[in-house]
Design goal:
About 45% of the residues lie in helices and about 10% in strands. The chain is mainly alpha-helical and about 80 residues long. A hairpin with an 8-residue loop joins β1 and β2.
Length: about 80
């Protein structure tokens, strides 16, 4: 099991979605913003209370989660 020390799952915060620890910044938001072409520096400007390492771990967590779950996708 991969260890993620900067990611928290709290049922009382953001509906239990994975967040950067101590914030309401969700892993999904970080991954979505990076996927849309925003840079780490863009996110650091928008969320000065998170770190570069927080963002990188959020992306690693999203990648790990995608590898751990099978999701049905539309056929090409």
């Amino acid at each position: 099991m991969t260890e993620f020390t900067r990611i928290a799952l709290d049922p009382a915060r953001m509906g239990g979605r994975a967040c950067i620890k101590g914030t309401r910044v969700t892993v999904g938001m970080v991954a979505g913003q990076i996927g849309a072409g925003r840079t780490i520096d863009d996110l650091l400007g928008d969320y000065p209370y998170i770190s570069r390492e927080d963002i990188l771990e959020a992306v690693r967590y999203a990648a790990w989660l995608a590898e751990e779950r099978e999701v049905t996708l539309a056929a090409e």
